[in-house]
C-alpha cells in the first residue's frame, strides 16, 4: 500500500526557551506572528480553534499525531491562545513527555512541520543541527 503524504508545510523554526520546557508552563509556544506558513491549518481547523466547547466554555483543541525527533509517534493537542496583544498556537497534553523522551534543552533549535497522511493531520518535530 502506498503512503500518500500531502500538504507538507514548515510551521515554525524556533529556539527552545525555558518556558517551552518547564513543568510550570507544560506547552510549546508557537507565536502566530512567527508561523512560516499561515496555511498549515485548514480553514475548518482554524474555525475549530476559534470556537469554544459548549460545556467547558474553553476554546477547542485539535488532536494531531506527532513524530518526535526520536521517531517515536505520539498524540498531541494544538490549541490557540489569544492574549491582549498577540496570539500563540500551543502544543499541549503530552508535550512534557516529548521533552523528556527527546532530551530537549533550552537553546536547541527545532522545526515543526505539518503534513497530511491519507487526510490525517500530522506534525513532525525536527532538531536542527547546530
From TrEMBL:
Q: Which domain of life is it from?
A: Eukaryota
One Pfam family for this entry, by name? At2g31720-like
Question: What keywords are annotated for this sequence in UniProt?
Answer: DNA-binding, Nucleus, Transcription, Transcription regulation
One term under GO cellular component: nucleus
The cross-references to SUPFAM superfamilies, in alphabetical order and at most eight, read: DNA-binding pseudobarrel domain
Q: Which GO terms describe its molecular function?
A: DNA binding
Keyword Kinase attached: no
Location of this chain's protein in the cell: Nucleus
Name the UniProt record assigns to this protein: TF-B3 domain-containing protein
Q: Which organism is it from?
A: Solanum commersonii
Amino acid at each position: 500500500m502506498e503512503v500518500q503524504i500531502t500538504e507538507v508545510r514548515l510551521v515554525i523554526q524556533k529556539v527552545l526557551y525555558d518556558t517551552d520546557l518547564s513543568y510550570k508552563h507544560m506547552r510549546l509556544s508557537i507565536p502566530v506572528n512567527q508561523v512560516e506558513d499561515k496555511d498549515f491549518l485548514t480553514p475548518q481547523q482554524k474555525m475549530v480553534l476559534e470556537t469554544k466547547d459548549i460545556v467547558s466554555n474553553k476554546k477547542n483543541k485539535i488532536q494531531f499525531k506527532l513524530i518526535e525527533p526520536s521517531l517515536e509517534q505520539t498524540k498531541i493537542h494544538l490549541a490557540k491562545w489569544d492574549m491582549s496583544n498577540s496570539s500563540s498556537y500551543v502544543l499541549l497534553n503530552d508535550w512534557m513527555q516529548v521533552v523528556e523522551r527527546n532530551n530537549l534543552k533550552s537553546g536547541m533549535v527545532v522545526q515543526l512541520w505539518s503534513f497530511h497522511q491519507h487526510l490525517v493531520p500530522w506534525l513532525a518535530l525536527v532538531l536542527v543541527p547546530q
